[in-house]
């Protein structure tokens, strides 16, 4: 798999000083990899909203015991090949912060 | 296998939140504060009509900004249920402000889903559906869960955010704050 590490530099990343806390790996399938200590909310599955209105959800069968977070990187398959763009949306819950944050960003391929 | 290349083109809209004055649980605003923005939500559960802060003068009000898909939020619910049982009859009103993270396709906006979550979590206190984020924005909230404690005069006295558990340090901090405002 080619790894195109593109990064959802989340909260605060706009200033370029925080390392990315989630990485989107190209596939297929697409794969969301959280940085150490960062949990991706599994009760609100990450979504890639395509410009045609299609919503592609990321998922993984491996969850934490309380089913709140993914225990393995969630993946998603694009419905069609070729280029496109859309909006990626996910809820991240850094373990040390005791909160969930919404992350929304534009992506293209 | 063909690899697709995803290219990030923008960080615009990075986080759908606004600047906020909210503070961590350990911080406080003491005896000062600003008037709490009025609640204008129209869809409520566990209430026979929309609640308004103006009608709750004389009671201490704890707002809990949450969403049922947030584990940090649901793990805090037992503490809020405990406060509700201890202090509702003594002048505390807890109000859940249920603010979705995702667009409607995720199901967080659905009143039936919220009703089922309230039952599942044992929540008997009123909850407003904040589907358009009007209350979230009015209070400058940034995280799930967040809390705003309002005194009997309708003034914001304490704010904070983050999961806490029955009888941990933050639980005791909020408990002390509630008791303080009830005693005023």
Explain this structure to me?
The complex is a heterodimer of chains A (109) and B (184). Chain A has 109 residues and is an all-beta fold. Chain A has one domain (6-108): Immunoglobulin-like, CATH 2.60.40. Helices cover 0% and strands 34% of the residues of chain A. Chain A is built from no helices and eight strands. Chain A has strands spanning 6-8, 22-25, 30-34, 47-50, 55-57, 75-76, 85-92, 101-108. Chain A has a four-stranded antiparallel beta sheet, with no helix packed on it. A four-stranded antiparallel beta sheet of chain A has the order 5-4-7-8, with no helix packed on it. The relative contact order of chain A is 0.23. The model of chain A is unreliable at 1-16 (pLDDT under 50). Chain B is α/β, with parallel strands linked by helices and 184 residues long. Chain B is built from five helices and seven strands. Chain B has helices at residues 71-74, 77-87, 111-121, 134-138, 169-183; strands at 7-10, 44-45, 60-66, 92-98, 127-129, 146-150, 156-161. A six-stranded mixed beta sheet of chain B has the order 2-5-4-3-6-7, covered by helices on one side. The radius of gyration of chain B is 17 Å and the shape is globular. The termini of chain B are far apart. Classes of the chains: A mainly beta (109), B alpha/beta (184). At the A-B interface, β1, β7 and β8 of A face β1 and α1 of B.
């Amino acid at each position: 798999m080619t790894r195109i590490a593109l990064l959802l530099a989340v909260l605060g990343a706009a200033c370029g000083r925080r390392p990315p806390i989630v990485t989107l790996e190209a596939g297929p399938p697409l794969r969301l990899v959280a940085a150490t200590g960062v949990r991706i909310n599994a009760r609100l599955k990450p979504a890639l909203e395509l410009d045609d209105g299609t919503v592609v959800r990321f998922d993984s069968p491996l969850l934490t015991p309380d089913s709140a977070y993914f225990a393995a990187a969630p993946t998603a398959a694009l419905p069609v090949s070729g280029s496109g763009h859309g909006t990626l949306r996910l809820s991240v819950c850094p373990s040390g912060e005791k909160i969930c944050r919404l992350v929304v960003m534009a992506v293209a391929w | 296998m063909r690899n697709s290349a995803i290219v990030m083109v923008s960080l615009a809209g990075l986080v759908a939140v606004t600047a906020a004055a909210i503070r961590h649980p350990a911080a406080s605003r003491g005896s000062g504060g600003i008037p709490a923005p009025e609640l204008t939500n129209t869809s409520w559960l566990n209430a026979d009509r929309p609640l308004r802060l103006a009608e709750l003068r004389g009671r201490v009000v704890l707002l809990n900004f949450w969403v049922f898909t947030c584990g940090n939020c649901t793990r805090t619910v037992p503490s809020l249920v405990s406060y509700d049982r201890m202090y509702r009859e003594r002048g505390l009103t807890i109000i859940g402000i249920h603010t979705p993270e995702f667009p409607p396709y995720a199901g967080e906006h659905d009143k039936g889903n919220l009703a089922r979550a309230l039952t599942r979590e044992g929540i008997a206190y009123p909850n407003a559906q904040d589907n358009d984020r009007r209350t979230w924005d009015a209070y400058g909230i940034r995280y799930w869960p967040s809390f705003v404690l309002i005194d009997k005069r309708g003034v914001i006295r304490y704010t904070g955010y983050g999961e806490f558990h029955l009888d941990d340090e933050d639980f005791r901090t909020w408990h002390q704050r509630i008791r303080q405002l009830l005693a005023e």
